[in-house]
Every structure is written in structure tokens, then in C-alpha cells.
Write a structure and sequence with these properties.
This protein is an alpha/beta fold. The protein has nine helices and nine strands. It has one domain: Rossmann fold (3-Layer(aba) Sandwich), CATH 3.40.50.150. Strands 1-2-9-8-3-4-6-5-7 form a nine-stranded mixed sheet. Helix 7 packs across helix 8. The chain is globular, with a radius of gyration of 20 Å. Bound molecules: S-adenosylmethionine. S-adenosylmethionine (SAM) binds next to helix 3 and strand 9.
């Protein structure tokens, strides 16, 4: 065996398949025993993530473009309606999927909708929000006041109430496994998951919201 053959025997050359399979995840922005955050465009991260057990998310649905209450107040650069292909991709990521604002998308028929009723919503605002789920189960509703939610505000214009995200996880009967929120915003899904002793991955394109999520997670006292 000459030197070249010997080298070939010990060190196999990288094939294009090897290159494709190399882990391509970015460095996490934050990581602890429960939570990993990527500050990135989720379209670049999702193809490289290991399978998860629940996708619980609240994608941008274009409230600015739709001209709702917020539409007249905010110039939300990120709030472009999520592309249908992206929504289709979310459905493939986990056996359980919950999409807040699901009524903005052409999703398959479902009877397992979740609803957040806002008893104190002013007449100019919608008094409930809907989440589509892929679960064949009874539709359920939680009542959570806007006043209570306002006390939690950390600087994200479309922040969801922590109680609503925790309730969503409980509704999906998660007793273990990993939860993914590819549009995590201020990290409400991650805080809810960690509070319930569950692991979660969040992806957010805006660094300032990643930073807000990290602060929330650091201030959290674990409730389990
Ligand atoms: C409706 S907000 C989520 C708010 C979140 N539920 C909370 O409680 O704070 C959607 C978030 O998705 C982020 N986003 C938009 N496009 C994204 C993309 N391609 N990848 C990752 N994040 C994205 C936006 O910056 C925004 O913070």
C-alpha cells in the first residue's frame, strides 16, 4: 500500500452527502437546561433541527397589512403575513401543532381550536383570538383579561399572555418532550414551557426580542 492509499484508508474524503449532513445550526443565542434560543431566520434553522414534540407558535399574520387596531398605530417591519409554504412546513415539524392566529391561514379543517376570550376588550378590539390545532379533540376556551396581560408587558407589541401559552401546552397534554416556537418574539412560549418543567427551543429574527426573552428567562422562578 503506497502513502496515498494509506491516507485514503485512514481518512475518508468528505462526500457531498457528508457536507449536506453536517450540523448547520447557528450558535445558540442563549442556552440553559430547559431552553435554547436561536437569533436567526427560522427558515434557515428549521431544516437542521432534530424532531420536536409540539410546535406552539404565533407567527406574524400581518396585522399592519390587515389594518386592524394595531395597523393604525404601529409600523411593524416584521409583521408581514407568514407565507402559506411556511405554515405548511410548520405542520410537518411535530405530531402536535398549535398555531395562534390560525384563522388567518388556509389550514386543514379541525375541531380542536383553542380560543382566548378577552372579557375586558374594548369595542374597537376583537374580544377573542383563535389557535388552530391539529388535534382531534373538543374546542376549548380560556378567559384572560387584557388588564392582567398588560401587567406582564416586556416590550413586544404582540406579546401573548403567559397564562394563555401555559394553558395551550397543558391542553396539548405535554408531560415531556420538546416544544418549538419558530416565531418566539419575547419568548412567552419558552417561559411557559420552562415553568411547566418542559424543554423548549425558540427562534427569533430580531435580536432585541431575543434579548428580552433571555431577561425573562433569567428572572423566572421555576414553578414546578
Ligand atoms: C406575533 S410575534 C410573536 C410574539 C410572541 N408570541 C410573544 O408572546 O412575544 C412574531 C415574531 O416572529 C418574528 N419573526 C418574523 N419572521 C421571522 C422569521 N422568518 N424567523 C424568525 N422569527 C421571525 C418577529 O420578529 C416577531 O417577534
Amino acid at each position: 500500500m503506497n502513502k496515498t492509499d494509506n491516507q485514503t484508508a485512514n481518512v475518508s474524503p468528505l462526500t457531498s452527502i457528508d457536507l449536506l449532513c453536517r450540523p448547520l445550526l447557528p450558535e445558540p443565542f442563549y442556552q440553559d437546561d430547559f431552553v435554547t434560543i436561536y437569533n436567526a431566520d427560522c427558515r434557515e434553522v428549521l431544516p437542521h433541527l432534530s424532531p420536536v414534540d409540539l410546535v406552539l407558535t404565533d407567527p406574524p399574520y400581518g396585522i399592519y397589512a390587515c389594518g386592524g387596531t394595531w395597523g393604525h398605530k404601529a409600523d411593524l417591519q416584521w409583521d408581514k403575513k407568514t407565507q402559506p409554504e411556511m405554515i405548511d412546513e410548520l405542520l410537518q415539524l411535530a405530531p402536535k401543532v398549535v398555531i395562534w392566529g390560525g384563522n388567518y391561514y388556509a389550514l386543514p379543517p379541525s375541531r380542536g381550536w383553542l380560543s382566548w376570550f378577552k372579557p375586558d376588550a374594548p369595542p374597537s378590539m376583537a374580544n377573542f383570538e383563535l389557535a388552530w390545532t391539529n388535534q382531534d379533540r373538543n374546542a376549548k376556551q380560556i378567559s384572560q383579561s387584557i388588564a392582567a396581560t398588560n401587567k406582564e408587558r416586556v416590550g413586544h407589541p404582540t406579546q401573548k399572555p403567559l397564562a394563555v401559552m401555559k394553558w395551550s401546552i397543558v391542553q396539548m397534554q405535554m408531560t415531556g418532550g420538546v416544544i418549538l416556537d419558530p416565531f418566539m418574539g419575547s419568548g412567552t412560549t419558552l417561559v411557559a414551557a420552562k415553568d411547566l418543567g418542559l424543554r423548549a427551543i425558540g427562534i427569533e429574527i430580531e435580536e432585541k426580542y431575543c434579548q428580552i426573552a433571555v431577561e425573562r428567562l433569567r428572572q423566572q422562578t421555576l414553578g414546578f
